[in-house]
Every structure is written in structure tokens, then in C-alpha cells.
Amino acid sequence: MLGRLMKYEWKATWKLLLPMNMLIIVMTFLACITVRADIFDSDNDMMVFGAMMILLTYIGSMFVVCIGTAIFLIYRFYTSVYGDQGYLLHTLPVDKHHIIVAKVLVSTGWILAGMALMYASVIFLFTERGEFLADFIDTFGGMIEYWGGAGMSGFVFLMTLVSVVFSVFARVLKVTACISIGQLSPNHKLLTAFAFYYGIYFAQKILSVFYFALIEMVNNLMDIDRFSYFDNSWEETLISGILYSVVFYLITWYMMEKKLNLD
Amino acid sequence: MAPIVQCMGLTKTYGGKVALNQINLSLERGRIIGLLGPNGSGKTTLIKIMNGLLGPTAGAVYINGQKPGIETKYRVSYLPERTYLHPGMKVIEMVQYFQDFYPDFRLDRAYDMLNRLQIPPAERLKNLSKGTREKVQLILVMSRDADLYILDEPIAGVDPASRDYILHTIVSNYNRNATILLSTHLISDVENILDEVVFIRYGNIILQAGAEQIRRNEHKSVDRFFREVFAC
Q: How many domains does chain A have?
């Protein structure tokens, strides 16, 4: 049943999200033509103004796609799970775990695809003609090395990618958990969900401050010059991503299985 | 044979308000049963608990001897009082959706009913009128070979001319060993198809009797009797 749920989740999301991502590709090509045609050196004010508008639209489209994807995925989760469509979803003979996994996997897939597309778009815009692939790999490697620490290996590369995936999982599941808690409120479901989201965000920040304070204290006590308990920052990202994913997943599941409250 | 539905001390409270008060109810197989009561009497709450959309505060409900869960959802076909279909999907896609998830879904039956009601399968649901969307929903629900059909206000949103056809659709498309639990305010429209009625008020079952028994003992229609019992 998981495969079927994912199929219908994909069908319900691609019609809007695919064109939105296509918009980035179109705007990238337009922006590239503008940058490479040296229009900004032109004496024609109208041409310069047009070029500026294209670049501003390019930047704007990035924001629109980022925010639009997030809003659409949140809306989709809320209406299909706790809105009218929830009456159908929750009377299907499927496990609640499958419902959550299908929605989280498809949402995470769209977010990761969007991130990859925007990254490729920026590289494409600033790279020399014919050197896109080399620049893409160089910059990507540099980012991974920055995140994964010195002494890059295949293992570190892989684990860094895994940690990015889990940090996206954790963010998606944080939203699903907050919406699931919010549905308990009889009159202010979305407001309650927002309140919990910012409450959890604040609690996460406090936990993070305590964690780094503890590391500093251990460093000072042991008189060592090591910022983190971990050798590489991907380890912290991965562990916190997994921990938060598990916690938010369990909250979402508990609310869906034990506290479902469809109006 | 064991009853299809059994409620034992079923209670649901919202804050301090009691929606269902220690309900004990047993529904037999092969019957068309009207769940009748005024607004706010607890009909929809009872139906939601049977479908696992709400959890009880106390007591339990058993469908086919099991608490609501995956197994009971294979056996229960539920029509809620609201439209639960994705408006962006086509009728044909919703038919496919039901076929994908319910092994007891009868494709031929669904298309036969769509044809008879002249509902174009290629049309998107958002382009259909509210009444037609409700008909599509009813067709999907009645195209299953379920043991229990739970229909919450199935004729409330459709015009009087279509009601007879819908009731005919309900009666002629269910498995004879199955039970239909039908909640409605429009008692006079459904009275003729009911085998049994359950009256519910303030979360309490106040009567469970055969429709013919009411007509014989009270010398009046179920609709008339209902109006007297629930007179304001």
C-alpha cells in the first residue's frame, strides 16, 4: 500500500511543483543570456533596464519557488490528512505509518530536488561556457569538504549527503508534527500548529546553545583546542537530524493513530 | 451469526460535553437500519467512532468482532456527510483510486452507475455540481462489496428528483448479507427502505425497533412517530 500512497501523493503534487521547478530552469536560461550578452555595458538604457528586470525576476523566482513549495506542501498535508480529504485517507485500509512515510518521502523528494536545481542554477549562471560540469563538481566538492571537514573520503562524502537528507526529513516531520498537534484544537487548528512550531523552534535553539556550552566547558576543563566532540560537523548534523526525525515522526504517528480529531 | 456492529458502554465527551453516553447497541447483518435523531444528537460522532476517525472516551465498538482498524476498513464502506474527493482529480481517477485501495471494489458496477446517472468519467470533480459530486461519492461507496455500509446523510445534498434514484441505487447495489446504517433527517424519503430504526437523542439510544413494528404498534409512520418523539 505504501507504493500506492506514494503514487497518489506524487500525482497530487507534481501538477503544481513541476511547473514551479521548470520556472527556475527557464529563468536560469534567461538570466544566463542576459549576463553573457554583456547587456550591462550597453549604452541603451532600456536594454540595461530590461536586463536588470530579468535578473530581479530570476532572483524573485527563486524565492517564489522556495516559499511556494513549502506553503503548498504544508497545505497539501493539512487538507489531505486533517481536512475533508482526511475522511477518505483515514478510512483507507492502510497503516498510519505508510501514510506518514509516503507524505514525508514525497515532500522531502520535492525539497531536495528544488535545492539541487537552485544550486545547479547558480553555478550555471556564474560559470564559464562549457565548464558547467567541472564547476558543478568543484563547488559541490568544496561544499562537502567544508561541511564534512578535512580529509575528505568517499565515506565522509556519502555521510554528508545522508546528513543533509535527514536534516530535511527532520524539518518536514517538524511541520507534520505541529500540524498534527494543531488539529487537537477545536477552533484554531492552524494557529495552534504555528504556536507549536515556533515553540519547538525556540526549544531547539535553547538545546543547541546548551550543547555548545557543554562542549566549550569540556574543552576548557580538558584544556584541548577542539570545538566539537565530533571530528566533523556532518556527525552533529546527522545525529541531530536522526534524533529530531524520530521524535517528530513519533509525535505525528501518535496524533494520527490515537488522537485523530476530524471535525 | 455475530452482529456486524456492537457498541459496549460507548462514551465520547468533548471537554465537559457528553456527545455519546454509555451506548450499548447491537446491529444485525442483512438489515437496512436508519440512525435517526435531531441535530447534535450524536449520530455523526457515533459514525466517526465506527470508522476510526475518532477515538472513544470510554467503552468500545466492535465491527465484525474487531475494534476499528485496518481490518475493519476492508469491510466497511463509508460515505461521510461532506465531500472527501480531491477536486482536482477526474471521476475516472477517483474510480481508479478506489480500485487500487479496496480489493472489494467492483469496477463494472461503478461504470454502470456512472452511465445511468450520465456522469462523464473524464470530467474533473471541481467542474461538477455539488450534488453530482455527492452522487459520484455515493457511487464509489456503493460499488464496494462491503459487509457494512455507513452512509451519513446520503440524500441531503441532492434534489428531490434524484433522491429516489439514489435510494434505488443504495438498495439495489448492496450485498444482501451486508448491513446498511443510514443516518438522515429526511425520514419520509427513506422510510420505505428501512428494516429497522435507531433513535438517538443527547447521546443516548432511546429506541431500537423494527420499522414495521413501529407502524403496527403505533399506527403511524416512522416519520410521524419520529416527529412526536423529538417534538420541541
A: 2
CA distances from B38 to A13, B43, B107, B183, B200 (A): 40, 9, 36, 11, 8
Q: In A78-153, which ranges are continuous DSSP H helix?
A: 86-89, 96-126, 132-148
Note whether B53 contacts A186, CB cutoff 8 Å: no
pLDDT in tens, A137-147: 676 666 666 65
ipTM: 0.89
- Are both A14 and A71 inside the same structural domain? yes
Q: pLDDT digit string (tens) for A53-72?
A: 888 999 999 999 999 999 99
Grid-cell match 417534538, residue found: B231
Stretch (H or E) spanning A195: helix A189-222
In this structure, whether the domain defined by B5-229 belongs to CATH 3.40.50.300 is answered with: yes
Sequence spans of domains, chain B? 5-229
In a shared domain, residues A22 and A68: yes
- Which residues on A lie below 8 Å from B85 (Cβ)? 85, 88
Closest Cβ–Cβ partner in B73, B80, B101 for A87: B80
Q: Which residue has the higher pLDDT, A214 or B66?
A: B66
Which pLDDT score, from 0 to 100, does residue A223 have? Answer: 67
Chain A CA closest to residue B86: A85
Tell me, yes or no, if A16 comes closer than 8 A to chain B by beta carbon: no
Nearest by CB to residue B51, choosing from A15, A91, A95, is A91
What is the nearest CA distance from A248 to chain B, expressed in angstroms? 22
- What's the whole-model pTM score? 0.86
**Chain B residues near residue A260 by CB distance under 8 angstroms:** 52-55
Q: For chain A, how many residues are written?
A: 263
Domain shared by A179 and A112, yes or no: no
Clarify whether residues A84 and A169 are in a common domain: no
> Distance between the two ends of chain B, CA-based, in angstroms?
40
A187 in contact with B, Cβ within 8 Å: no
Domain coverage including residue A80: 1-126
Q: Do A93 and B71 touch (CB under 8 A)?
A: yes
CA distance B69 to A94: 9
Chain A residue numbers with beta carbons less than 8 Å from the beta carbon of B48 are: 262
A159 and A120, same structural domain? no
